[in-house]
Amino acid sequence: MINIVGLSIGISAALVIYVIVNFDFTFDKNHRDSEKIYRVVTEYSFSGNVGYNGGVTGPLAAAVKAEVTGVKDVVPFFTTGGMNVFIANKTDVPTRFKDQDNLVLADGRYFKLFDYNWLAGSAKTALNEPYQVVLTSDQAKIYFPKLLYNQMLGKTVTYDTIKTTVTGIVQTPVENTDFNFHDFISYSTALNNPALKDNLQLTEWGSTTSASVLFVKLADNASPINVEKQLNVLLKKHNPPKKEDAGNTQVFHLQPLNDLHFNKDYNNFDGGHTASKTTLYGLLVIATFLLMLGCINFVNLTTAQASQRAKEIGIRKTMGSTRKQLMIQFLSETFLVTLFAVIIAILAAPSILKLFADFTPKGISVDYLHHLNILVFMLALILVVSVLSGFYPALVLSGYKPVDVFKNQANAGTSKTRNSFLRKSLTTVQFIIAQFFIMATLLVSKQIYYALHKDLGFKKEAIINVSIPYKNMNEGTKQVFKNRLATIPQIEMMSIGGAPPSSGNTNSTEATYKDGKKEIKTDVQQKFGDDNYLRVYNIKLLAGRNITRADSTKALLINNSYAKVLGFKNPSDAIGKVLDYNDNKKMEIVGVVADFYQKSLHDAIKPLAVLMTKNKFNNRTFHIALKPQTAGGGDWKKAIASMQKVWKDLYPDDDFDYSFYDKNIEKFYDAEQHTSTLLTWATGLSVFISCLGLLGLAMYTTNLRTKEIGVRKVLGASIAQIVTLLSTELILLIALAFVIVTPLAWYAMNKWMESFADRTTISWWIFVLSGAGMLLAALFTLSFQTVKAAVANPVKSLRSE
To answer: Which of 45, 197, 261, 775 fits a 20 to 30 Å CA distance from 515?
Structure first.
């Protein structure tokens, strides 16, 4: 039972982790010649700060087709979303689908490069003309639930005010893919629609948007390096460097299709799921460790019990069994135990996967019928585990000599043999793995606690963020919304502006300060807000004054870090200085605020400006500070209900989306929270498996030393002395494991912490607590058997003497 339970836990973990890892490693593997397909991406450098963009300049596609050699196919497309879709029905009011995302402007070249199964229409003609659209089968069934695919052709789909005709239906991809588009509007539609054409920016070499995507397929003998060089020559030709941009760079790179799913710098489309190869490989290491623990248990317990089968082996050899036959027999036994463990794992895996549903990507499932590779993996696992776990015990068992067996010498030197040394070594490895997991879990939890409780330089509690619809940014409606919110008694104050102090968005520009002797050009982060922005977030003003409405075009605030970059040791010295700001506009520094984190603790604090703007896109977020809750605790719910009512009156066609700011901050550390959860599970399982093995060894040891214990008790040994005698050797192994694992864990923790610009310390108590915890768990496990053996009546053990 110990063998089967230990193995089944290890195999379950390995199976679930395999399903997760295999899911991410199988994205977009179905396209023909995928190794020749690349996305063109853009890398920027502003004042030493590097930025990445998965898009390109609008005119690049046409230039590549005309001027770059070695490229077989040039496939531009433009991603869009947030459109309302209208479908005519039998009533006067069309059916409306709000804010549809994953829409794309594309043409026939898209379907030539990427493989889709066509259910209706033709890839050659479906997107040749303006105002045509191709739908995926799932989306088509949403728009036209009662029609067959062929009957959908010719139907009208209206995107906001743009009427299109359905000319094709493609099968929704069943394979894992990052290309989750479901409405393909013909690219030429944008060329015939002024508003859409402006978005494409087909003549703007100096402007880049991530929505403007370009894929290329290289010719058979083309070199990616050579093509990349040609792209950058093309950029310099059409957009030569300007004097004022000295030190700034813009470079095109070719990103392989198989990197699309794993590159967080360039991302994929519309913020789709990207995976970390480091995390995936880390998961595989965890799976390997847990599987190793189960296998070590098997080897330990099987070799420990070998002596009990000595007579069986001696008789079999005497009757003519060869060593090969005996090895096959013992490997077969191992195979059966492993098979039972695998069956348990197969039944348990779907439930285990559900435990991690909150942070595993959508679409992951343990589907044995439709994923043949999972069954192949399980078969391989059975064979590998059977060989790893069974080969050495089979070798030991089949090596007994019949003569020694029948002379009762099979047990000679049991505690001093090579088998005993191997058992001790494997047990030590078990506790190294278990203690490593404990130490890692404690450190990750400590860093998360540090990040969530650190003073970030602003208030984050009791603040709600609400952004008005970007399609309805009417200034009059916004003012009415503000005035009505001001009447809600639970609201303390509010500010209108852009992103909150710390957010996932980055808005930056360049600014230059000239002091007569030198010129300091800096990349500056920007936060937009009114005169209440500092008050809502309790951002401290170190020197000068707050911004006012009159400052929108001539004055700003900077943070203390920026003041230091400009050479001012005292914040007050920066007041009144003028910056050449954003296209040489003169902006006066009227105040210096204390530093606050603009992103998570992964990123260092950067030079920052806080300013007012008349730009409606940076002036659409309401930052609402709530009053403290009274004893009943329902004040905030009432406030939200009142806000929702006002919203529905003024923006009836849009959903009321709000968020508590402190919850948004917590989301910065989702990856770390998930890592902590996985490590907690891995730690629990590793300790459990290790203690199972320890229990098995303790049972074997006490059984082997039953008569010795009886003699010691007759001679006056106490229960405590007997327990100490039986436990000492195993406790020393745990201590040895602690000594070995501590420097390894310290090194691994340091490497993990390097990703944080601001991090907690690796405290000594993490290691002490880990060692003490493992020791207590081991003592508790051993006590079941050692105390039982120590209190046993010695008469029973010595009766046969």
So the answer is: 45
